[in-house]
Structures are given as structure tokens and as C-alpha cells.
Amino acid sequence: MATRTFTGNSWLYNLTSKKDLLWLTIWIAGLGVLWIWDALFLNAPAFVRLQTAFLNSLLTGLMVVLFSLTLGWFLGVSLNTLEHSKSKVGFAILSFVTDILRSIPQIIAVLIGYVVLTILLHKGIIRSSFVQMVWIAGTIAIAVFLEVADTIRQRIDYFRTLDFVDAMLCCGIKERRIMNVEILWKNSRSHMLHKLIAIFGISIFLQCSIDFIISVGLSTDVSLINFPMTLGNLLANVDSKQDILALSNLFTEPGYVSVIFTRHLQGLSVAFCIVFSMLCIYMIANGFVRRHKLA
Amino acid sequence: MSAFSSILHKENTGLRTRLIIHGAGIILMAAAFWVFISAVEASRIDSRESDNEIQKYLDLRKMDFGDPVDRTLFRESLDVFYTGQTQRNDSVLTAIDNLRQRQFSDPAYKTGDTQDGLTWNMVRRLSGMYLQFIAVYGIVLIIIYLLAQRIAVYRFIKMKQHRESYLTQALELVRNARANRIGSIGGSAVRKLGLLLAKALVKGILLMLLFTPAYVIAYSVKTTIDTSSILFMILLGIVSNGVLIHTANKFFTFLVSESRKGYVQTAVVKNLHASYEWDAPEGIPLRTLLQIKHGFRSHVFQSIFLNARFQFIPALKEHASFLVTGLIIIEMALNIQGHFCYELLQQILYRQYDIAAAIIFGIFLTVKATEIAIDIWEHKEKRKYGY
Q1: What tens digit of pLDDT does each residue of A86-134 get?
Q2: Measuring CA to CA, which residue among A285, A295, A292 is closest to residue A20?
Q3: Looking at this predicted complex, what is its ipTM?
Q4: What is the pLDDT of residues A186-222, one digit of tens each?
Q5: Where on the phi/psi map is residue A155: left (φ > 0), alpha (ψ -120 to 50), or beta?
Q6: How far, in Å, CA of B148 to CA of A162, rounded?
Q7: DSSP labels for A205-238?
């Protein structure tokens, strides 16, 4: 019985050959172990906050992916259509604007979005937490969607070098359908999925970073408590900061390691969630590239 | 108009046209920021004049606007002087309350900052911080460029040696033991398994460190190390935020894609060394990781490396932008006073949006300058290889 479990088609060994699925499993398992540990040792209010923060961050990340895909698809296809139209003015203007947008570091774009959000919160225009998350996701998407647009353009350009496009045009298929359905949907899903996984990772990083930055101070009228609970927001909390600071004790007092995983659990759990998620998402994206031979 | 569009069609244009595009972008952004800064300055002057008007009432002797009796007296006096202008009089009282509130709560009043906006003094102060920011950025960018290549080359050679990850090797060890119906693993195998798992753990911790956001690392060593030093900032810029690992991964992707091309097989047929074993007679000496550019002579990897490096140069642009993001996060999140990006956050807090805009423009210029430098570098490399 034991032999059958560890040979041939065992699910574990299937996983080792599919690194993306292996790392997805590791991610879920790691977070599962953390959840059980926190359920046992973390105080109830902090545990609830941690779960809310994680789910909110996940939801915002997914919204970023969705918005980036929409914006990137639209921009990529538009640029391609304009590039091959008779008048190149539209293409020239649009590529010039994207060129400028590319030179603005992502965190600055997100910061500007947060400044506007604080003004809207202060004036009472935005109240709902969900709308705030949609706003945050939209802001991050604007900072990162160009990567999706680039992938889309690369894919279309690649297929244009083949007979693929000309043959379909000869068959009477509309160019719009060739680009959107034949090239992007039928032949580029793996590439797009890989890019979206990477964007999901970047969005988690940017979200956590900007929330942490805001804890330093962005407005006297609007503070962290006005924003929806996210991992970055929870990490910026004074209790979490003290938990992370406590790690310094390990340098002078290595024996402190025995209590650190129970006494300073909130900050460590949040930090672990962020770092472990970023590592796993990176590994998933890499494994995906290898399995689908995208490189 | 067609000339204009051909200039902007980047893919088909030379260095000169690319520089024109960058120049046009800088001019456009400079104009946009100038308009914004002028608008903020105009609004500040309006607001200051309005505050001065209100301040006159606050300066009235023996008048306490916190006392309801005084407020009523004042309101009635206004009605006497401005009869029938109820709305105007209400607005004056509201403006007085607003100003009094701001004088208590506005950080600028608390710190005694005069909120003069973008004065020459401020520009001079910002310039020093900006130069320091550029210096740190330049050093980190160069180190990351060099380190990322070495990490990618090491990873590529390990891949060519068909070495599985430590975790996979450990699982393989367990599988072999079970498949051979040994039932239990012997003592030496247990030691080997332990060693593999320990290596996997250390590698995992190192990888996690590379993905850790800078503020987590900084806070975890804050009481032990001086986290406000430039050296620490440079170190954080290199190892944190996933910048190094992402850059290395990009270079690794180029190496893999190059290694699959036909010329590699041709080179092998023509008897170029093709072994990827460390320090083997036809392999790669480990020390070549130190002199990476010229270290693989007479080995097929030399061409793979040079071609990958050529493609890596333009890709550096996006990594440079991400690196700037990382440095901004480090400066802002660590509360290091007197740093360029921390100043940006402070100016946003004090609603000095004109100064904040000037700082953002400075950051934009840094990224643009990097893009220009990379374009020139790419152009030189192209000429060297006869493109």
C-alpha cells in the first residue's frame, strides 16, 4: 500500500513536475498551517483582523488583475489597430502618452491615487469600504496595466510575422476577430495568465507598501482607520510594528526565539503572509512559464 | 503629421528620434507641472489674503471667539455694520471658526512652518536631497545589474547540470526508498535527507529575504543597526522588495531562450566547449562568475551570455523604474528625515502640493534620464554588433 502511494502516478510526484501547481499547493498549505497556528495562539480580535486583512488584500489584488486585463487588452488592441490604420496620428499620440506613463514609478501613481482618495474621504464623497477598495485597485491597475498591454502587443506582433494573420484575412475573417479571438483568446491565454499572476504579486506588494507608507502620514484628516483593513494596513498598526521590532531581540538573545512565535504573533503573521505570498506567487509564475514553455 | 508619427513610432526609429521623444516627454511634463505649481501658488496667495482679512478680527483686543457672549456681540455688530447681509456675516463667522481650528490642528502651524511654497531656499534644500537620492539610486542600479547577471548565470548553469531543487531531491530520496520496498530509510540516507531538507530551508529563507519588503527588514533590525544610514539604504535597495530576484529572473529567461536557438547546436558541432560542469576540462570554472563578461571564452555559453546581455539592456528600463519605486518605499516607510522621498510625504501631509509636484517631477526626470542612458547604451551595443 505504502509502495503504491509513493510511486509512479502519485499526486505528489505529479506536482513536482508541475512546479506552478506545486507552489500553489505550498502556498495554500503554508497559509493553512499559519491559520491553524494563529487560531491556537493569536488573540481573537487580532485573528479576525488578520483574516479580514488577508481577504481584503486578496480581493483587491484580484480586482487589480481584472482592471489591468481590461485596460491592457483595450490599450494593446487599440495601439495595434491604430498602428495599422492609414492615419498614424492616433497611434502617435497614444504611444506618446503611454511612454510618459511608463516613466512614472508605480508607487508615485498609486500615491497620487491615495492622495485623491483621502480628499474624497475627507469631503465625504466616498464612504463605503468596498468603493475604497475598488478605487485602490483601479489606482494600482493604472500603475501596472501597461505590462499587460505590452504582452498583448508582443503576441499580436509575433502572429503578424507569420502567415497566420494573412491566411485568416484571405478567408474573410474580420481583423478584429483575428486579434481578439484567434490570437489573444485562443493562442495567448497562457502568456496572459502568466502576466496576470505576476501582476497579482506586484499588486499585493504595492498595496502593502502604500498602506505602510500612509501610516507615516498622508493627511491630518484621514488616517489608516479610515481605510479598509489590508495586510499593509495591519502591518502598519503599532502592535504589529512592535512585533516586528521584537525580532531585533534575536540578535542579542537567541533564546527569545521560543516565545517570538506566540508573543509577537500578529506582526509576524502579517509579515509572513506578505512575504510568503510574494515568494509563492513568483514561483507559481516561474513554474507556469516552464510548464507552458513560454520563455 | 506623418513625420511626427514616424518620430513617435519607437520600434522603427533610431537613437536621435528616441531622444526627441524623451525630450518631448520631459518638456510636456515640465509644462504640466509648471501649470500645476503656478495654480497652487495662486491659490495659496488667495488663501493667505483671505486669512489675513480674517486674522484682523481674531486680533481684536478683549475679544474671545470661544466665548458665546463675545460671539453673539460680534455677530450683532456685523449685522449693524452690514445690515441685511446675513449670509455674508454668517460666512465671516464660519471663516473665523475655520481659521481658529486650523491654527490648532494644522501641522504647519504646529511646527511653525511658514508654508511659503516652492521658494529658492526650498529648491536649494531639495537639490541636496535629490543628489543624494540619485547617488544611492545609481549605486544600487549598478550593483543590481552586476549581481543579477551572476545569479542568473549560476542558476542557468545549475539548470544545465540537471540538478533538481533540494526539496525535489529529498522527495526523490524518499520515493526511491519506498519504491525499493526498503520500508524504512537507512542511517546515511536519513542524514542525507536531513541535509537536503536543511539546505532547502536555508534556500527558502534566503529567497524569502529577497522578497521581503524593505520596511519589514528595517523594522526587524531597527534596534540593532542604524537604519537611517546611507549604507543601510543601499543594502536594503539591493536585497529587498524582490528587485534583485526579478531582475535576475529576467536575465535567466533571456539565457534560457537563447540557449534554445540553432546557433548553439552549430557551435557544439564546431567543437566549442559545451560542458556545464564546474571546473571540468571543457566546463566552466566557478571563478568566472567574478569576471563574467570575458570568462567563458571557447565555451558555447559565451555567445549565449552575450546575446542574452544584449536583450537584457533595454529590459533594464522597467527594472530601473521598479527600483525607483523600491527606493521611494524605503525612504518613505523608514521615516528618515532629510531624504528626498520622505520630504515628498511630508509636503503632501502639509498640503504643500507645489513642492510635492516638484519632487515628483525630479523622480520622473531620474527615470527619464535612466531611459535615455539605456537607449544610448543599447544604440552603442547595436553598432558594435553591426545592427
Answers
A1: 888 899 899 999 999 999 999 999 999 988 988 888 888 888 889 999 9
A2: A285
A3: 0.86
A4: 999 999 999 999 999 999 999 999 888 887 665 555 5
A5: alpha
A6: 34
A7: HHHHHHHHHHHH-S-SS--GGGSPP-HHHHHTSH
- Helix ranges (H only) for chain A are 2-5, 11-17, 19-41, 44-83, 89-102, 106-122, 129-160, 163-170, 175-177, 186-187, 189-216, 231-235, 238-245, 249-252, 257-263, 265-291
Query: What are the domain boundaries of chain B?
Result: 2-111, 120-162+208-351
Measured between CA atoms, how close is A86 to chain B, in angstroms? 10
Phi, psi of A144, rounded to the nearest 5 degrees: -120, -10
Domains of chain A as residue ranges with CATH: 20-36+45-291 (1.10.3720.10)
Q: Do A286 and B249 touch (CB under 8 A)?
A: yes
Q: Is A160 exposed, middle or buried (0-12, 13-18, 19+ CB in 10 A)?
A: middle
Instruction: Identify residue A184 by its one-letter amino acid code.
Output: L
Residue A230 pLDDT > 60: yes
Of B168, B224, B328, the CB nearest to A16: B168
* Cα–Cα distance for residue pair A157/A151, rounded to 1 Å: 10
The answer to whether residues B355 and B121 touch, using CB atoms and an 8 Å cutoff, is no
Distance (Å, whole) CA A108 – CA A111 = 5
Higher pLDDT, A31 or A292: A31
Q: Which residue in the set B6, B179, B368 is minimally distant from A103, CB to CB?
A: B368
Cβ contacts of residue A142 below 8 Å, gap of 6+? A71, A109, A113
pLDDT at B296 exceeding the cut of 90: no
Question: Which residues contact residue B349 at a Cβ distance below 8 angstroms, ignoring those fewer than 6 apart?
Answer: A217, A218, A219, A220, B107
- Spell out the residues 6+ positions from residue B294 whose beta carbon is closer than 8 angstroms to its own: none
| CB pair distance less than 8 Å for B332 and A213 | yes
Q: Find out whether A179 and A154 touch, Cβ atoms under 8 Å.
A: no
Q: Is A273 on the interface with B (CB under 8 A)?
A: no
Residue found under cell 559545451: B274
Q: What is the DSSP letter of A174?
A: -
Residue A54 or B278, more confident: A54
